């Protein structure tokens, strides 16, 4: 019997690429140039499984291509807003993701951005790199203390809870959260967390607001001009979730007008073409979507995809099926 044909859309950690090659007839992407819409359609027509990432837009148009061979789209990523899951369902295509393995690393980046924004670290680093550091002085780059402050989390899933642990136990921070559902009472008690009934309540009571909701039509521009006005002038906004949860234009206006003190962003609308307005600001720390970018995590993500397609080709239910 011939091996299932697999198409991997981007370059992966080589140890996982080798494992895939041992088991399947694999088409790798050695150049790492994102595939075009036409190439993605062709992939669905010629492979049994498509293994995309957050950078591949698997739209309804792509999914509805005629003469499909693929039966599974196994995403390399926990977020799957790059895939039109509803269209996949209609077409009988299974979709899987990679939960759990990137929880801590993404929460680390959220904490990093929180600290960078509070302590004006990006500004300081730019000052040195631009050879503009005049030397230490008492009023230079004075930021805000983090220890003991209030962290408001929007969304309270795995990554938010991991950040809450780091913030509460590492920095004695008070934890607020706003989410459609609450986790087990034991988790709330352990973190001494308080659930806010409204978004406004969380925004107005937090020194730091960190976003941890999925990118869906319901969360598109959840943080808009009105929300930014509800935050404290001393507050910071942290986004490691999805860029379009925040209205970029409104955020740039808020940062320029000092409605809020700063922001730390790892994700953006229309990546990698970020709004040039962000580049003109001094009170923002910008990272290029680094949440899951550690060797251990990227290997674990690849292995999670492998487990999902192995289960599928063995006639079993993939562990991380989302649709
Ligand atoms: C994800 O997994 O959703 C990240 O955004 C990329 O690792």
Automatic annotation (TrEMBL):
<dbReference type="GO" id="GO:0030267">
    <property type="term" value="F:glyoxylate reductase (NADPH) activity"/>
</dbReference>
<dbReference type="InterPro" id="IPR006139">
    <property type="entry name" value="D-isomer_2_OHA_DH_cat_dom"/>
</dbReference>
<dbReference type="InterPro" id="IPR036291">
    <property type="entry name" value="NAD(P)-bd_dom_sf"/>
</dbReference>
<dbReference type="GO" id="GO:0047964">
    <property type="term" value="F:glyoxylate reductase (NADH) activity"/>
</dbReference>
<dbReference type="GO" id="GO:0016618">
    <property type="term" value="F:hydroxypyruvate reductase [NAD(P)H] activity"/>
</dbReference>
<dbReference type="GO" id="GO:0051287">
    <property type="term" value="F:NAD binding"/>
</dbReference>
<feature type="domain" description="D-isomer specific 2-hydroxyacid dehydrogenase NAD-binding">
    <location>
        <begin position="112"/>
        <end position="291"/>
    </location>
</feature>
<dbReference type="GO" id="GO:0005829">
    <property type="term" value="C:cytosol"/>
</dbReference>
<dbReference type="InterPro" id="IPR006140">
    <property type="entry name" value="D-isomer_DH_NAD-bd"/>
</dbReference>
<dbReference type="Pfam" id="PF02826">
    <property type="entry name" value="2-Hacid_dh_C"/>
</dbReference>
<comment type="similarity">
    <text>Belongs to the D-isomer specific 2-hydroxyacid dehydrogenase family.</text>
</comment>
<dbReference type="Pfam" id="PF00389">
    <property type="entry name" value="2-Hacid_dh"/>
</dbReference>
<feature type="domain" description="D-isomer specific 2-hydroxyacid dehydrogenase catalytic">
    <location>
        <begin position="9"/>
        <end position="322"/>
    </location>
</feature>
<dbReference type="InterPro" id="IPR050223">
    <property type="entry name" value="D-isomer_2-hydroxyacid_DH"/>
</dbReference>
<protein>
    <submittedName>
        <fullName>Glyoxylate reductase</fullName>
        <ecNumber>1.1.1.26</ecNumber>
    </submittedName>
</protein>
<keyword id="KW-0560">Oxidoreductase</keyword>
<dbReference type="InterPro" id="IPR029753">
    <property type="entry name" value="D-isomer_DH_CS"/>
</dbReference>
<keyword id="KW-0520">NAD</keyword>
């Amino acid at each position: 019997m011939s091996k299932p044909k697999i198409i991997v859309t981007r370059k992966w950690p080589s140890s996982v690429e080798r494992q895939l090659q041992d088991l399947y007839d694999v088409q790798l992407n050695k150049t790492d140039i994102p595939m075009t819409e036409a190439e993605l359609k062709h992939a669905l027509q010629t492979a049994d499984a498509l293994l995309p990432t957050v950078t591949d837009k698997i739209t309804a148009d792509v999914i509805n291509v005629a003469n499909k061979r693929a039966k599974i789209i196994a995403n390399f990523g926990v977020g799957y807003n790059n895939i039109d899951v509803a269209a996949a369902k209609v077409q009988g295509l299974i979709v899987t993701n990679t939960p759990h393995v990137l929880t801590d690393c993404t929460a680390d980046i959220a904490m990093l951005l929180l600290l960078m924004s509070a302590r004006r670290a990006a500004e300081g680093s730019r000052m040195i790199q631009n050879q503009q550091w005049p030397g230490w002085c008492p009023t230079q780059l004075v930021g805000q203390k983090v220890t003991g402050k209030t962290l408001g989390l929007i969304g309270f899933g795995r990554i938010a809870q991991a950040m809450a642990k780091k913030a509460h136990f590492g920095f004695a921070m008070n934890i607020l959260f706003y989410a459609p559902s609450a986790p087990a009472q034991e988790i709330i008690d352990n973190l001494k967390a308080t659930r806010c009934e409204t978004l406004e309540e969380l925004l107005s009571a937090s020194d730091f607001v960190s976003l941890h909701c999925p990118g869906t039509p319901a969360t598109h521009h959840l943080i808009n001009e009105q929300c930014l006005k509800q935050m404290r002038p001393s507050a910071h906004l942290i986004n490691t979730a999805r860029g379009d949860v925040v209205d970029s234009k409104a955020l740039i206006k808020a940062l320029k007008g000092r409605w809020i003190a700063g922001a730390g962003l790892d994700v953006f609308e229309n990546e990698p073409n970020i709004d040039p307005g962000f580049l003109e600001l001094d009170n923002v720390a910008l990272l290029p979507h680094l949440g899951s970018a550690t060797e251990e995590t990227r290997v674990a993500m690849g292995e999670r995809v492998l487990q999902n397609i192995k289960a599928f080709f063995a006639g079993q239910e993939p562990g991380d099926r989302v649709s």
